[in-house]
Structures are given as structure tokens and as C-alpha cells.
Amino acid sequence: MTIKRFSTLPNVGSRVVFLCAPVLLLTFARNFPDTVLTVCQQLSLVVYSLKFMSWQQAKYFQGIVPAIRILVLLYLFLLSISLLGSAFKAFGSDFANELVDATSSPFLGLVVGIIATSLVQSSSVTTSLVVGLVGAGAISLQGAIPMVMGANIGTTVTNMLVSLGHIARKEEFRRAYSASVVHDIFNIMAVLILFPVQIKFNLLGRLAEMTSGLLIGVGGVHFKSPLKAIVKPAAHLVSDLVQGSPWILIAIAVVLLFVSLSFLVKTLKSVVVGRLQAFFDKVIFKSAVTSMALGIVFTVMVQSSSITTSLIIPLAGAGLLNLNQVFPYTLGANVGTTVTAILASLATGQSSAVVVALAHLLFNVLGIVIIWPIRFIPIKLAQLMANLCVKNRLLPVLFVLLFFYGIPLTVVLLLR
């Protein structure tokens, strides 16, 4: 049996990949012509053999398309970080100094992190941008760490919005809202505890520098990123095409960052979510350790804590999961989401960017270490807020509008 038609563009994510493929191919053809020629020859043989494939063989081949799509989207994400660094270097030292001065206030940096992440609904985007700016020397370490702390709070807005979908059903909303707001309460508590310590002693910065010293090397050994070497040829090609214009480079970098991360998350979600969801209640949530481990692993796999935490809100609303099961899972998601920033820091090739990414990881780990022994506090507060919001269902809407947007915007306008 032969296959008459073989579609390789099943969705928008695939179209993005295949539109960008010529640029990537041109880049590698320019730097590795022999390798590209060999790959093209092999691909032509594969394409030619498709019409002779059986249905089972073609179905197996089509299964590798998501893997190829993930690799290309990941490359585009790393390329966007590299382009961002090139753009800010092109602006010169004066622009960098102005940007550093604008974010010199730790409290302003914290608020900017909250509102920026609330607007894009992705801490991965915010932290990756911050890491890219630090790698380019546009933001100092002291200004960047409060921003990634604020990103932790801002990312929980997605959970809140998902829980509002249950607002018409009283008991279901009570369970769903408590499951979403417990994530907010934990992140707020972590900031209230660690933010003053960070301002006074630069605890996260110092610990991150010590940790990065172990990873990067000591004794005068410099950090050489293999990811930077892979991305550098494409970054130079794009820069040459736009004649080094910093504003155009920033526009391309931001578009690539949003598009690549968005479709990367969608692709990973389509591959991973359906396979894991069936095992949630039966296997994974039997203990706090397994719940937290799943939160870490699942978030690393889909590169989005918003996806992993939002996924369990309907399960909690339906009564399949309780708050004690949801809480450790969200803590694991906090840790897992830091991997995106770590990847971005490796693409910059700058040790300062690695320090910021590790500070984000350490912030989440220390928050768990400090708050886990008193976890009854965020759990009880979440239940209390859920009870209040069930009585007056305008309160959760006002909370989202004021806490994530109204108050942060007011603070930014007043402090600038």
C-alpha cells in the first residue's frame, strides 16, 4: 500500500519552522558547505522514498517531524537571545548606561518584572530577555535579579485567569481558585522574605556567583559556550542582512523570541501533555516528593510553568486533586521554569548572564527550603481567599486587574 499525500505542514508552528529553514540552511551552507551538501543529499533520498513507503512507515517518519520542529524552534530561541545582545552592543555604552540607571532601583526592577510577565503571561520570555540584556551589558546584576523575582509573581496570572473559567459553579470555583492562588501566595511570601535580604546582602547574587564559579571554572579559565558557537554564524548573517541596525535587530530578536517560545511550548505540549495527564492522579500525586518532581520534569519538558500549573486547575476544580497535592507540584514548576533562562544564558557566552539565571534558580530553591516547613500558611491563606471570592465573585476579577496590572503600572509611573 502506498501513500498518496504526505503533509508536512500540519499547523502554524510547522509553517514557522519551514519559513525559517531557508535562512538557517543559508547560514550553515555559508560556514559548513560540505556538511550541508551531504545532509541535502540524504534528505532528497528520504523525500523520494516517501512515495514507496507503506502507511506504517510513513506514519513513523511523520512522528519525527515534531522532534525536528522542536530543534529548529529551540535554535531560533537561542538565536533571538544572541541577536538581542548584538543589538544592545550596537547602541553603544551611553545607551547601556541609561538603561542601567533606569533599572537601578531594586523595587522598580521587581515591579517591572511583575507587570512585564503579567502582560506576556510567560516568565520564560521575561527572564530570557533579562538574561540577554545582562549578557549584553545593558542591565547590571543588581538590577536584573529583582526582575526575575518579579517574573515569578507575574507568571501566576495565567492560573488566575484559568480559574475564572469555573466561576459560574460555586464549589468547583472554590477548589479551582484555591489551587491557583496558592501559587501566588507562595511566590509573594518568597519575595517578602528574600527581597529585603537580597537588597541588604545581595545573597542571591553571591550564591549564584559561587555556583557559577563551580560550573564555569576557576583559576583563570574562561567560559566558552558551545551554544554560542552554534548560534553565532546565523546571528552574524542576520546582522549583515540588516547592516547592523540595532533597532531592526531588536525587532527581529523580540519577534523570534515570542514566536519561537510560543510555538515551542505548543509543540512540546502536544507531544507531552496528553501522555502524562492520564497518570496524574493514579500515580504521580501519591506523595509530595513525586508531585514536586513531576512539576520540575514536566515544566522542563514543555518550557512553561504557566502551561504545567494551568493544566491542573481544572483537575482541582473537578475534585480530582486537593490543595495538598497541587501545592508541591507548583513549587516544582517554579524550579523547572528556570531551565529556559539557563539555556538563554549559555547562548550569550557571558558569565554574568549565567549568574542571573542561577540566581533565578536559587531564588526558587531557597523559597521552597524556607516556606515548605510552614506550608500550612499559604495553603490556609489560599482556602481563606477562595472562600471570600466565592461569596463575592467580583473580588477575583478585581484582584487580577489591580494586583497584576493596576498597582504595578501606578508604581512604575510614580517611581520613574
Shape descriptor reads globular
**Total count of strands:** 0
Instruction: Kindly report the average pLDDT value.
Output: 78
The end-to-end span amounts to: 69 Å
* SSE pattern, N- to C-terminal: HHHHHHHHHHHHHHHHHHHH
Instruction: Provide the low-confidence segments as ranges.
Output: 1-10, 217-223
Question: Helix/strand/pairing class, anyone?
Answer: mainly alpha
Largest sheet: none
| Helical content (DSSP H or I, runs of 4+) | over 70%
Task: Describe how the helices and strands are arranged.
Blueprint: H1 12-31, H2 33-49, H3 55-62, H4 65-91, H5 93-102, H6 106-120, H7 123-135, H8 141-154, H9 157-163, H10 170-201, H11 203-216, H12 226-241, H13 246-277, H14 288-302, H15 305-317, H16 323-336, H17 338-348, H18 351-371, H19 376-391, H20 395-415
What brief labels describe this structure?
mainly alpha; disordered N terminus; 416 residues; globular
Can you describe this structure in just a few lines?
81% of the residues lie in helices and 0% in strands. It has helices at 12-31, 33-49, 55-62, 65-91, 93-102, 106-120, 123-135, 141-154, 157-163, 170-201, 203-216, 226-241, 246-277, 288-302, 305-317, 323-336, 338-348, 351-371, 376-391, 395-415.
